[in-house]
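Moderator note: this is an archived Q&A kept for reference. The question asked for a predicted structure of one protein chain; the sequence and the answer are reproduced below.
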Amino acid sequence: MSRSVWLPAVGLLAWICCLSLGTVQGGKVLVMPVDGSHWLSMKILVKELSRRGHEVTVLVPESSLLIKGSESYKTEIYKVPYNQDTVDEKFKHLREEVFKHAPGITDVFLNAQGLVNFTSLQVVGCEALLDNKPLMERLRGEGFDVTLTDPFLPCGSVLAKLFSIPAVYFLRGLPCGLDIRANQCPSPPSYVPVQFSGNSDHMTFFQRVKNMLMHFLESYLCRIMYQHFDDLTSRRFGNGMTYSELISHGAIWLPRYDFVFEWPRPLLPNMVLIGGINCAKKAHLPADLKEFVDGSGDDGFIVFTLGSMLSNMPEEKAKLFFDAFRQIPQRVVWRYTGDLPNDMPKNVRVMKWLPQNDLLAHPKAKAFMTHGGSHGIYEGICNAVPMLMFPLFGDQGDNVKLMVTRGVAKELSIFEMTSETLVAALKEIIHNKSYKEQMVELSQIHLDRPVQPLDLAVFWTEFVMRHKGATHLRVAAHDLNWIQYYSLDVIIFLVIIVISVLWLTKKCCLFFLCKYICMQTRQDAYPGRSRVVWVWNPPILILLGSDRLSCVFQGVRYLNSTPILSGEVANPHCNRTGLRKQGASRRLERTAGARKPPGLLATAQNWQLFVDLEKQLKFPHHSVATTLRPDILLISEEIKKHHLHGVASAVGGQSRKDP
C-alpha cells in the first residue's frame, strides 16, 4: 500500500480512537431531562456516559410519564406540587385534541396555546425544585462538571447558571426557532423555511413573501410562548434576563438532526449534529414477535405506530385501519391500546409497546406507518424503510413535507382517508420501487460518516467537562446590538460619505459651468467692459453690458438682444428677478433732467442697479456702488420689491448703506 493511501487511513483511525477514549478520570454529569419522547433519545447518551465511567445524576420529578430509574445512572427524585393524575390528565387532553381537527395554518396558534398550557405545569415543578433548599445545597456540593439538559424546558439551564457550570443542550429544536435565535445562528428567510410555512428551501417570490410574514409572526409568538420562562429567569437572576439570554450561554448544542432530513442551512461552530443517535444500536426481537414477522413470507410486514404519546384513537378511526389491514396480504404490527373489534384481522398484531427500531431493522419490513415524529423518521432512514405518514400536530407537518419532497414517503390525512385510500397508499408505497430505491440512497448518505452520532455526542460532552466549557466557539454576535449586527451604522456612515461627495461634486460642476457661461457671455455682450455679480444661494449670475442685459439663473441663461437706449430701459426678460421697466425709466428721466443721456447703457456711469430677490438671497448688510461701467449695487433683504433704478452717484466708487 502506498504511503499516500495508508497515512490518511491511519489519521482517520486515530481520530476515531480519540473519540472512543474516555477521560482519565470520570466526571460528574447533572442531567435535567424533558419527559416523554425527548427522554427516549437522551437516555441513550446518559447510559453511554455512565458506561464510560462518568457519574451521572438524573433529576426526576416524583410524577413523571416515561422517566424511570436505572442501574446505569443515579436518579434524584424531587417533589412537585402536583400528582401523577394531573400529569396523566394533561397528556390525555393533548391526545384528545389531536383527533378533533385536521392540521392547518391555525395550528400555529393552537400549538402555541397548547405549549403554554403544558409547560406552565413544568415551570411550577421547576420552581418547586429550585425552592427545595436542602436538595439544592446537596446538588451544589456535588461539584458537577457539566449539565446535560434539553432547553425545551428552562430548569436545566437555570441550574447550570446557579451552579456556575457549563451546559450541553440535547434537543430536536425549540418552538419558533428559539434555539437558532438564542445562539445567534443566521437564518435568512430567503432560503430557510419558517416552521409551519409549508415552504421548501427553494421558494418562489410569493413563497418568500409568505416566509417573511411567517418570520415576523414567529417572532411575535416567541414572546407569548416563552413569557412564563422569561418571568422565571428574571425572578431568579434579575436584570430583566430573558430565557433566550439564559440559554445563549450554552457551551455546546447537540441538535438531533442532520441535512439528510433537514433543509440545508447555516450552522455555528458550537452546534454538532447528531441526527440518528436513537437508531445506532439494535437488539434481538422477542421470540414470539420474531416468529410473527418471520412468518410474513415474501409479502413482508408493516410497522404502525403514532409515537410514544398516542397509543389509542377514536373507535371510528380505528375501524378504518382494521378494515384496510384486512384487505392486504402483509402482516401488521401495530402499537394500539384501544378496544379491539370482534372480527380482529388475523394478519394484525397489536402491542402496548413495540421495539420500533428493531422491527424496522428486520429485512422483511416493507413499510412504516408513522405520524412523522423525528425519532421514527430517523429509524426509518437508518433502516431504509419507506413511510406512509399521518401528520397530527407540532412539527410533524414540516417533517412529513421534508420526507415527501425527498421522494421516500407518501402523506395521507388521517381525517380524510377511507379504507380504500389507505389500501391504495400502502400498495403504492410497497410496490412502487422508487420509494424503496430513494430511501436506500438516503439511508446510505446518512450512514456514510466518519464518526457515529453517539460517539460524537459523548466526545463533545467530555470536551466541555475537560475544558470547563467551550467559550472559544461562542460568536461575537452575542455582544452586538441589532444596529451593529446588521451593520446599519456602517451603512448610514457610508451613505453620508457618498452623499457628501456627490454634493461637493455637484457644487464644483456648477461653479465651473457658471464660470464658463460667464466668460462666454462677457465675450458676446461687451468684451472687456462688462461687470459680473456672482451670488451663491441659489447660484445666480447677473451680467450688465453696454448693449445687452444677460441673466443666468441656476445654470439657465436668458439673454435679451434689445439694446437699452438712452432715456429708456428695455425689458430684459429675466422674469425671476422681476425687474420693473417703468420705474427705472421714470427715475432715469428725473436724474438726467430734460436732456436724455447720450449713447447706450454703457455710457451711463452714474446708474445704479438695485437688486433684491425677496429673501431668496442672503446679501450682506451694506451696498456697494461704483462709477465704473456699469454701476452695480446689491442691497439687503429690507427692500421687499424688485426694481431697477437709475440714479446719479453722489460720490463715484464709494460704498453706500442700505436705503
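Archived answer notes: The chain has three domains: 27-278, 281-447, 494-656.
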